[in-house]
Amino acid sequence: MQRHSTRLAEIFLAVLSWDTDDKYLHWNDLRRRPAPAGFTHEEWWLGLRLSRSRRLRPLALLDTKGRPFLFGQPDSLTELLHSIDRGLGGPLGIPKSLSSDTMRDTYVVNALMEEAITSSQLEGAATTRHIAREMLQSGRSPRDTHERMILNNYLTMQRIRDLREQPLSPGLVFELHRRVTDGTLEKEDAAGRFRRDDENVRVEHAIDGTVYHVPPVAGELQGRMELMCRFANGEDGGGFIHPVVRAILLHFWLAYDHPFVDGNGRTARALFYWSMLRQGYELFEYISISQFLLRAPVRYAEAFLHTESDSNDTTYFLLHQAGVIREAVRSLGEYLRERQQELARHAARLRGLNTLNHRQQALLAHALREPDTRYLIAVHQSSHNVSYQTANNDLFELVEKGLLTQVKQGRTYVFIAPPDLPERLSKG
């Protein structure tokens, strides 16, 4: 403002038109774009920054220097939130694709597995999606720390479904942290407790050691977490905040405070899911956001850095996360449409077999697509969230109808679709 004091009147007049096309770019991005005619990049930035500042609201979250974090809701964010609400149907109703209990259970299990795997991979878990899904579906024990991270995440996500009615408390946060880090920390006693002063926790570049974030000192963590819980429960007296915005800010809050020795990212994303489900977004049971974060991890990191480097403006993080959520919601919609089309394609072949339940029809539809697949009772049980006996009955009934064959390998039954399955189905 000092450098451009003689141009302030012109800047204030021009910003009225700049506001309508404000993409909420950070300075690092804005300075690479063509500036408006007649203005420098600094003048352009000054006008936008002053205009944005008028709309920002403070949070109870303070940085390490005692300055509040802020957030705004520009038109671009409002548009994203509207798209998310439309895609999820708000807190209302379940799509017809998920109308039956068995169908919902199948989708939930798939979503939980996807989130458990990709959230762990974001934190460095080195295993393939195929191997991880095989472990979760078969129920075998994890072979290493990487697989243990994935199993922990999966069990934690299941637990969150039961915790959605509970208000957030430090005890609940500690429980989630213990669950996501069980058996994976170098210090076993670090699970479910605050980091100590002598535990030098930093967010650093994995290769060159550049320090990106120094969290608050350990002595402040109890008070900071209590404030975070009040915010999460809507007890902060800060006025109405859109539920998705509140969930994203909760994610940011825990990540900024970094209260644990390790597992902060996984705990932050778990809290985000808890918040979405608690606030009535039931369809979030079927959505994984970490798979989209994993596609562009640098942008995820930049969303944190842009906030800290621009006067604690969390709007950057809100815009990034809302964009990721919208992409995840769209992906769910596309997946459901594809599944409906797939079921319609197989309807003719499955017609006349209406005595089969949803799980059996899903298995046969899969066998038509992947004829060499080998099916196990334990995997069928896990995939559909049913008892072992129910899964056993499903598969052996298909054997009795001549739609599967079975062999015994050791003590385990393996089920395979016969080569002429399409012909057998067409005969009803």
The span between the termini is 79 Å
- Quick one: biggest sheet? 3 strands, antiparallel
Total beta strands: 7
Percent of sequence in beta strands: 5-15%
The side-by-side strand order for the widest beta sheet comes to 5-7-6
Query: What percent of the residues sit in helical stretches (DSSP H or I)?
Result: 55-70%
- CATH homologous group name of the largest domain: Fido-like domain
Features of the shown structure:
single chain; 428 residues; mainly alpha; Fic-like fold; Arc Repressor Mutant, subunit A; 3 domains; three-stranded antiparallel beta sheet; two-stranded antiparallel sheet; 7 strands; globular
At a glance:
By secondary structure, the protein is mostly helical. The chain has helices at residues 8-19, 27-30, 41-53, 75-88, 101-122, 129-138, 145-163, 170-181, 221-232, 243-257, 264-278, 290-295, 297-309, 315-350, 358-369, 377-384, 388-400, 421-426; strands at residues 57-62, 68-71, 203-204, 211-213, 374-375, 405-409, 412-416. Helix 4 runs parallel beside helix 14 (315-350), helix 6 packs across helix 16 (377-384) and helix 7 packs antiparallel against helix 8 (170-181).
